[in-house]
Each structure stands twice: as structure tokens, then as C-alpha cells.
């Protein structure tokens, strides 16, 4: 029963309920519910004292608690119902002294008794419900977390192997283009490149195998986590239901019907309390702190080669010096997606075919023309000659 939090601004996959450790929000909900009961008791005990001081003290009480309640751990329709008490209080001018006695002796004791029975504690472990939920969530998540850690290590290893292969290809290319390189050295660079390529494929195979392991285990993981979550939801539903009845009972004591304006005040308050909806509140919590949160399930994160920053002044000077233009152009096919960072750069999707109209410069960039007619620069290592 936490207060409405701000919408998450961080990456969804980091905040998702399914990611390691993120179940703690639901675990901590029990402690926050317990604190909410203390706040409710304190709130209405103070209200009982205020009742004796008539309109001026009522306004002081309302102003104070409106500010406090905004930071307290209730949410949804239950929060709106609590706030409605303060709105009603501001419109009252005086209340009977017997109301004060009723609020203190009946409703305060009722909430404290219920609170004691509902929130048993475990020696050195805090609330029994929190400890049980934390243990169950941790046990259910531990195997999946281990698999996820192995998958992340495999992803890092795969990307490193891709980088090594890229470096080996560069060395091999430079050796082949250098007429002074002996055949023996060229063969050495070729062998080295083939070795890192072979190693990369082995690392990728392990990466794919671990991803398959994580993916196949995910349904079981989700089933176990949701079962534990639903048990927590059921306990929270009972708490919301009880506090709804407690608020309605408090309303009954406060509802002075002899005055028509007071009738109107409490009629509006009653309608707000009756609008407390356990399903809506639980649905909100599920979508913002539970399984309903968006997540980004693991998948292959393809490696993309690095790009040298285009030095436009140098490029322009080369063009002025008479860099040759290819007559008719050469068809090339994009191997990776690329989004141009500047207005004179092309953007394309992997698999897209377009024309290369100028050879690669010493910065690793070419000039091309897309099928739609747009001309611009693109990184040469993002394409291959189309057959």
C-alpha cells in the first residue's frame, strides 16, 4: 500500500519486476502497509482531539495532515478516500465531543488490534510475511539469475571475439595491400584471421546455447514468481478491504446529519469511500511494480563494427584535390542498420541496396546514393558489394 510513485524514468528492462532483485518493492510493501496503519491510527487520534476544538482546530489539523498524507504509503482509490476526509473537515464548523470518544475508543483500538494480528513478526527477521516473500522470491529467482549472469558473460565474450576478428581482418587487409609484405607474412595474417574467426564462432555457439537455456527456463521462472506474487496480492487485497471498512466506520461516527450542509459533505465523502476498488488498486500495483511492467527479455545482441568520426574539412579538401567519382556507381548492400548523425550522412537498414558513387577515403567513409535519390556519406565497413 505504497503512495503513488512517479512513473519510472530509467530503462524499463532494469526496472522490471522480472529482473534480479526487483521483487523487493513487493516485499517492502508489507512494511509500508504496517506503517500506514500507524499513520491512520495517529491521524484519527489527532482528529479526535481536534473535534473538541471546533472549526479553527479542524482547519489546522486538515492542513497538516494533507501534507503528511501525500508522502505516506497508500495509493489508488484508498489514498483518494483518505484525502477526502481532510477535504470534508475543512467544510465543517464544529463537531460533537462524543465523536472524539468514539474515534479514539472504538476505531483506533480496532485498527491497532487488527494490525497486531495481521502483521506477526519473526525473530530477527522482521515481519513474517516480508521474510517469507523475500525467501520465496529469492529461491525462485536464483536459478534464473545464475543463467542470466552466464548469458551476460557469454555476450561480453562474444563481442570481444567479434572485435578481435575485426582487428585481424584489418591487419590481413593491410598486409595484402602492401606490396612489400612477403607471402609468408600474408599467410601468417590469413592463418591468424581464420583462427580468431573460428574462435568467434565457438564463442557465439556458446552464447546461443546459453540464450536457449535462459529462454527455455523462463516460463517456469515466470510461473513460480507469479505464484508468489499472487499470494502477496491476496494479502494486500485483505488489507485494502479491511481499511475500507475502517474508513467507512470512521465515516459513520463523523456523519452528523442534522445539518443539511454537513449531509452534503458526508454524502460526497461516502461516495468517495464506496469507490475504493481493490481490483483497480491491485491492477495498478501489478502494472507499475509487478508482472505487468514492461520488460526486455534477453535476445542476441548483434555486434556492430566501430565507425571513425568523419572529418568533414579533410574530406572536403580531398574532393577539391580531385577525388575520382565512380561512373554509374557500384551496387552495395548494407550489412547493418545505420542512422546518420549529420544531415550529409545516409541512413539505411540492413539488407538495403543502394549505389556507391565514390571510393572509400582514408577515414573509412564512402559517398553513396539511396534508391530515393538522397546522396550522402556512409561508413564503408557497413556495406558489401551486392552480387
Q: How do the helices and strands line up, and which of them pair or pack?
A:
Blueprint lengths: L11 H4 L8 H28 L2 H16 L6 H15 L6 H22 L2 E2 L3 E2 H50 L5 H72 L5 H15 L3 H12 L22 H9 L4 E10 L18 E6 L6 E5 L5 E5 L3 E3 L2
Antiparallel strand pairs: 1-2, 3-4, 3-7, 4-5, 5-6
Helix pairs in contact: 2-3, 2-5, 2-6, 2-7, 3-4, 4-7, 4-8, 5-7, 6-7, 7-8
Give a quick summary of the entry.
This protein is α+β, with helices and mostly antiparallel strands and 387 residues long.
Written account of the structure:
The chain has 387 residues and is of the alpha+beta class. 63% of the residues lie in helices and 9% in strands. It contains ten helices and seven strands. Strand 4 and strand 5 (365-369) form a beta hairpin. Helix 2 runs antiparallel to helix 5 and helix 7 (183-254) runs antiparallel to helix 8 (260-274). The longest helix is centred in the middle third of the chain and has 72 residues, at 183-254. The model has no long low-confidence stretch (mean pLDDT 86).
Order of helices and strands: HHHHHEEHHHHHEEEEE
Number of strands: 7
Distance between the termini: 63 Å
Question: What coarse outline follows from CA principal-axis ratios?
Answer: elongated
Low-confidence stretches: none
Q: Helical amount among residues, as a percent range?
A: 55-70%
Amino acid at each position: 500500500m505504497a503512495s503513488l510513485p512517479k512513473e519510472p524514468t530509467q530503462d524499463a528492462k532494469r526496472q522490471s519486476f522480472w529482473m534480479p532483485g526487483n521483487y523487493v518493492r513487493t516485499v517492502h510493501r508489507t512494511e509500508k502497509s504496517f506503517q500506514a496503519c500507524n499513520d491512520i491510527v495517529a491521524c484519527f487520534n489527532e482528529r479526535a482531539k481536534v473535534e473538541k476544538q471546533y472549526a479553527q482546530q479542524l482547519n489546522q489539523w486538515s492542513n497538516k495532515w494533507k501534507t503528511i498524507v501525500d508522502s505516506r504509503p497508500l495509493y489508488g482509490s484508498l489514498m483518494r478516500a483518505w484525502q477526502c476526509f481532510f477535504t470534508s473537515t475543512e467544510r465543517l464548523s464544529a463537531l460533537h465531543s462524543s465523536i472524539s470518544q468514539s474515534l479514539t475508543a472504538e476505531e483506533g483500538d480496532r485498527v491497532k488490534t487488527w494490525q497486531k494480528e495481521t502483521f506477526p513478526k519473526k525473530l530477527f527477521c522482521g515481519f513474517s510475511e516480508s521474510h517469507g516473500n523475500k525467501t520465496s522470491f529469492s529461491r525462485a529467482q536464483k536459478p534464473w539469475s545464475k543463467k542470466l549472469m552466464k548469458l551476460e558473460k557469454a555476450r561480453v565474450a562474444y563481442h570481444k571475439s567479434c572485435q578481435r576478428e575485426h582487428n585481424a581482418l584489418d591487419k590481413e587487409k593491410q598486409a595484402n595491400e602492401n606490396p612489400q609484405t612477403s607471402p609468408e607474412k600474408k599467410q601468417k595474417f590469413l592463418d591468424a584471421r581464420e583462427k580468431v574467426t573460428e574462435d568467434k564462432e565457438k564463442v557465439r555457439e556458446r552464447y546461443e546455447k546459453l540464450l536457449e537455456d535462459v529462454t527455455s527456463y523462463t516460463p517456469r521462472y515466470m510461473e513460480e514468481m507469479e505464484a508468489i506474487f499472487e499470494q502477496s496480492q491476496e494479502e494486500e487485497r485483505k488489507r485494502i478491504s479491511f481499511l475500507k471498512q475502517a474508513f467507512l466506520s470512521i465515516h459513520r461516527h463523523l456523519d452528523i446529519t442534522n445539518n443539511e450542509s454537513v449531509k452534503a459533505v458526508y454524502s460526497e465523502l461516502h461516495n468517495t469511500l464506496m469507490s475504493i476498488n481493490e481490483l483497480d488498486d491491485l491492477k495498478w500495483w501489478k502494472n507499475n511494480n509487478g508482472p505487468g511492467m514492461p520488460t526486455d527479455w534477453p535476445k542476441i545482441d548483434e555486434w556492430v563494427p566501430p565507425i571513425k568520426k568523419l572529418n568533414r574539412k579533410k574530406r572536403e579538401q580531398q574532393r577539391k584535390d580531385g577525388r575520382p567519382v565512380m561512373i554509374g556507381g557500384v551496387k552495395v548492400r548494407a550489412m547493418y542498420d545505420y542512422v546518420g548523425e549529420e544531415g550529409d550522412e545516409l541512413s539505411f537498414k540492413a539488407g538495403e541496396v543502394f549505389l556507391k558513387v565514390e571510393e572509400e577515403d582514408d577515414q573509412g567513409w564512402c559517398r553513396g546514393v539511396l534508391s530515393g535519390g538522397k546522396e550522402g556519406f556512409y561508413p564503408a565497413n557497413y556495406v558489401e558489394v551486392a552480387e
